[in-house]
Amino acid sequence: MSPLNIKKSASSHSAYELRDPNAPVIETHTLAVIVENEPGVLARVIGLFTARGYNIDSLTVAEVDHSSHRSRITVVTTGTPEVIVQIKAQLARMVPVYEVHDLTVEGPSVQRELALMKVAGRGEARIEALRLAEIFRAHVVDSTLESFVFEMTGTPEKIDSFAELMRPLGLREMARTGVAALSRGL
Amino acid sequence: MTRQMTGARMVVQALKDQGVEVVFGYPGGAVLPIYDEIFQQNDIRHILVRHEQGAIHMAEGYARSTGKVGVALVTSGPGATNAVTGLTDALLDSIPIVVLSGQVPTFMIGTDAFQEADTIGITRPCTKHNWLVKDTDKLAETIHQAFHVASHGRPGPVLIDIPKDVQFATGTYMEPATARVSHYQPRMKGDPEAIAAMVEMMETAERPVFYTGGGVINSGLKASALLREFVAATGFPITSTLMGLGAYPASGKNWLGMLGMHGLYEANLAMHGCDLMINIGARFDDRITGRIPDFSPKSKKVHVDIDPSSINKVIRVDVGIVGDIAHVLEEALALWKSRGSKVNKDGLAKWWKQIAEWQAVKCLGYKGSAKVIKPQYALERLEALTKGMDRYITTEVGQHQMWAAQYLGFEDPNRWMTSGGLGTMGYGLPASIGVQVAHPDSLVINVAGEASWLMNMQEMGTAMQFRAPVKQFILNNERLGMVRQWQELLHGQRYSQSWSESLPDFVKLAEAFGCKGIQVTDPADLDDAIMEMIRYDGPFIFDCRVEKHENCFPMIPSGKPHNEMLLGDADTQGVIGAKGAVLV
Ligand SMILES: Cc1cc2nc3c(=O)[nH]c(=O)nc-3n(C[C@H](O)[C@H](O)[C@H](O)COP(=O)(O)OP(=O)(O)OC[C@H]3O[C@@H](n4cnc5c(N)ncnc54)[C@H](O)[C@@H]3O)c2cc1C
Ligand SMILES: Cc1ncc(C[n+]2csc(CCOP(=O)(O)OP(=O)(O)O)c2C)c(N)n1
After folding, report:
1. Is B424 exposed, middle or buried (0-12, 13-18, 19+ CB in 10 A)?
2. In what order do the strands lie in the sheet with B276-280?
3. Which of A47, A93, A96 has its CB closest to that of B308?
4. ipTM over 0.85
5. Same-domain status, B70 and B197
6. pLDDT per residue over B352-364, tens digit each?
7. Which domain holds residue A86?
8. Structural domain boundaries enclosing B430
9. Are residues B328 and B266 in the same domain?
10. Are B433 and B58 contacting, i.e. CB atoms less than 8 angstroms apart?
């Protein structure tokens, strides 16, 4: 589940689907959108995705340059290559948008997400959870006699697989930030 | 020099500094301070409308006929929500307008205060950009930015929401020159390599066609002049969308007429059969493309557009050129000349021969009548009797709009105002007033259908009050004609709710408004009546009773390719399949 409660597999309601029935390749792209941090800018970006039927798999936003009021929105989206090109053009023409980077095509990038997971259990399950946490380099940030809160940072896939392992061991609740991403090198 | 003033005064000052001469508006509680300032000055004229939708369409008519930004002023809540249709209309047709709306005071926002609406939220998807100004010190700068955004790049509507306390408070005024017009600087010049690629393709093309659109009008008078020069230099045929009419003159020798769903046979077949399509400021709208896989299958395509998202949105093109039409055409023409470019003469001669055969079909022919007025005939007469006059045409939406596009000829840009993208019934009457306000001495005619006209007929009051002598030429078929046509072709002639009943007596209605009306039923009376309308010094309502069941042809049924066009009633039996019926 993404932070926006949009299912990963949710099908697009885009008109593009009508236009091209023999469903071509669907790609996943991570976009970094640098915007003016003005009121409503996030609503505007999200509104673009919903109005035009584009997918949002994950979306994060925070001001990254306080002096110039720039925020960075990281969106993970899926679509045909044509749709991805459209999404970038549609984002780029918005008035408060400064830059749009497609990290997926601009070269290698690092992608990280932070997750907090509450796992409840006693005895063997509790020990097993702790052991697995160590393997996955998750940290314990809260513990009681019958629960842990793990913090872990990693790719969304890594977090998914850790969560899968924790489920039978008593995973109760999870909070995820969505993906933050930067290109590698200079 | 810093100047202190109230927010309300700042609004008026900023409009003056932006060169605004007229504002279309309607007062209410949340804009009273601004109206108080308007009262105390004489530089900006205020046109009091009868409904806020009218104000927006007037601003659109003003903008489209002048090339300037149109301005409207509305109150909070219902004033702002009434503006939504007009804003959406301007967004789809790329019309630059600035709308100022009042808002409840900042400290009451979010409390469901009297006449509070989330105007920013409601208008976000139907504006190019919008702003809520919470600080009087930022008000002037925001207004200047709004004018910049509305008129630069792909033009469009913007809205500024101004809470009442911000209007009352005092702040520092900022001049336009010092305003930060943000980073919003769309690219004007096209990529030279892409322009060169286009020119090379033009040199070898055997069956080229210019497909031009509203972007040429948006770009300005220079773009139209350059387009004409380019067409003359190449000898290529040229067609245009509904939105681009007038950029190339209808009397020009390379003119094929409008293309698209109700476009001319020769224009559509040229698009279908060409080997090079040069799209200049058009957006491959579905009224143009028909069935996408069958759209001009054998051509290479070039697309010039200022909005990168227009390129490859619907149709994949071989060469995309992002830039302003005038800039790109200037470069292209210079290159054409400096290279000493020549066209493919043999190919082009054959192509014109083929086109002449299509033109010989005379697709706009219709069966005349001595008894009833055919709508096409009414427009032919209107055209003949107003030709050469200083004339502006607006339309409502429906069959009459398409006939107007087919039978009236436009020699210059900015002379034709119609709602293309949204297809807003009720656009034409207020738009005609906006045009007339900008051109007080010109002949302004709204070609209307009776159903559309009723949607904003209250604006006749505005026309009367401000002495805008707009001519309302209503082709009255007592039908929602375009809907009736689709029901005939697609829904087994079940005419569900598509007739106009209990129509007013338009002559008496004109009298009630204090102007003049006339009803004509006999084709023999038509010319005299049209002349009477033209000569009448004041608003005029012309109730032209026309054939009730006329269909508008040519027509490319939804979901069909260009070469499957219907030319007349005889072609219509069972042509539209279930798949086409889903489309609009
Ligand atoms: C009942 C009805 C029937 C219709 N039937 C037809 C029909 O048969 N034929 C037809 O043509 N239309 C028809 N229309 C209109 C149709 O719906 C579209 O509105 C129209 O085709 C779009 O015109 P356009 O492609 O010129 O684009 P516009 O909407 O005018 O868009 C202009 C394009 O130019 C670009 N642009 C703007 N400024 C610049 C600049 N300075 N430099 C470069 N590019 C710029 C924009 O980005 C945009 O892509 C009909 C409408 C109705 C209501
Ligand atoms: C506001 C609005 N509502 C509905 C429609 C759908 N519609 C398109 S054309 C039309 C009929 C227009 O009738 P009229 O104005 O009499 O013109 P005619 O087609 O008869 O020339 C309708 C209802 C529309 N375009 N706009």
Report:
1. buried
2. B255-258, B238-240, B208-212, B276-280, B300-305, B319-322
3. A93
4. yes
5. no
6. 999 999 999 999 9
7. 27-102
8. 375-545
9. yes
10. yes
